[in-house]
Amino acid sequence: MFLEQGIKSQNKFWLYLIGSVLIIIASFIGQIPFSVAVLAKTLTGKQVIPTDNAAVMKIFEPNLTLFLVMISFAFAFVGIYYVVKYLHHQTLLSVTTSRKQVDWKRIFFSFFLWSFFTILSFVVVYLNAPENFIWNFKLIPFLILVVVGAILIPIQTSTEEYVFRGYLMQGFANLALNRWFPLVMTSLIFGLMHIFNPEVAKMGYVIMVYYIGTGLFLGVITLMDEGIELALGFHAANNLIGALLVTSDWSVFQTHSLFKDLSEPSAGLDVILPVVIIYPVLLFIFSKKYNWTNWKEKLTGKINVVEISNQL
Questions:
Q1: C-alpha distance across the termini of the chain, in Å
Q2: How many CA atoms lie within 13 A of 158 on its CB side?
Q3: Which of 87, 113, 252, 305 lies 20 to 30 A from 154 at CA?
Q4: How far apart are CA 270 and CA 238, in angstroms?
Q5: Taking all residues of the chain, what is their mean pLDDT, rounded to a whole number?
């Protein structure tokens, strides 16, 4: 069982707090190249000193910005590996899946399924209001985006999944010895992590319904499937296809995507629809494909400490 793999007598919750700090430090180290590049750009007088995060993100050409920002996640991922191995004496596999090896078919199925839904959703929105979009395609910048994005965006999304649905989910299970508490806590923290995104400033806090709802969805498929493979595929598709498909002046990243959204952002059905309709549809598809049963026990049941002790 996935959560049980992290529950050991030596895995006190305070170790997860220390581990989280170490992962954050690793991420900060990975941000040094970007910070140095921004400092060099401003000191040479070629760029006005940025006063906010939005201005920082526009200092460099979009592909270079994407590359520099994503480096920090590579460092954070290394931090996860060493924290799991040396602080908790576990393998990376143990915070990935309950299976004997990573199921790549699950990752790819989830990736392509959500890619299909993402593209379909965009087509519907585009056909409904084509005047809100312009063709933004430039061959060379787009090809560079494909290469940089295909390599680094999955590292970014995987890092987040290992932190929230892997490491912290097992950590909160150690604290509460049940399943609903890790699910709720990781969903809330995941959602709140996005609170400083420019989308929140533009649309208001109602968009947190989407972020927290997405975290909850990813937590549910992790617990039901006993591993983070489906979450890895979904998250990679969400960020990569989104970066390749459409950009806007108010989004976190401005990319050399195929389309540019010129509309004024507003929180409406596009925020609520995925959480209340599309995610349940995905849960139905996953449940049928992977024969999920015993939902109540897997999502809200207690963890049997006696059984765990017998397995050790």
A1: 13
A2: 20
A3: 87
A4: 15
A5: 91
The pairing of strands 259-261 and 246-248 is parallel
Kindly report the length of the chain.
Answer: 312
Residue with tokens 């990243």: 253
**In this model, does residue 307 exceed pLDDT 50?**
no
- Token output for 278: 């599309």
**pLDDT tens-digit profile of 9-63?**
888 999 999 999 999 999 999 999 999 998 888 888 766 777 677 777 788 899 9
| Whole-angstrom distance, CA of residue 194 vs CA of residue 198 | 9
183-202 pLDDT per residue, tens: 999 999 999 998 887 778 77
Residue 46 pLDDT = 67
Residue-wise pLDDT for 23-32, tens only, equals 999 999 999 9
d(CA 290, CA 201): 39
**pLDDT value of residue 42:** 84
- CB distance 222 to 194 below 8 Å: no
What pLDDT digit, counting tens, does each position of 246-280 carry?
998 877 778 999 999 998 777 667 778 889 999 99
Q: What is the DSSP string of the chain?
A: -TGGGG--TT--HHHHHHHHHHHHHHHHHHTHHHHHHHHHHHHTTSSPPP-SHHHHTTSS-HHHHHHHHHHHHHHHHHHHHHIIIIIS---GGGGTBSSSS--HHHHHHHHHHHHHHHHHHHHHHHHH-GGGEEE---HHHHHHHHHHHHHHHHHHHHHHHIIIIIIIHHHHHHHHSBSHHHHHHHHHHHHHTTTTSHHHHHH-GGGHHHHHHHHHHHHHHHHHHTBSHHHHHHHHHHHHHHHHHEEETTSS-----SEEE-SPP--SHHHHHIIIIIHHHHHHHHHHHHT---HHHHHHPBP-HHHHHHH-
34 with 196: CB under 8 angstroms?
no
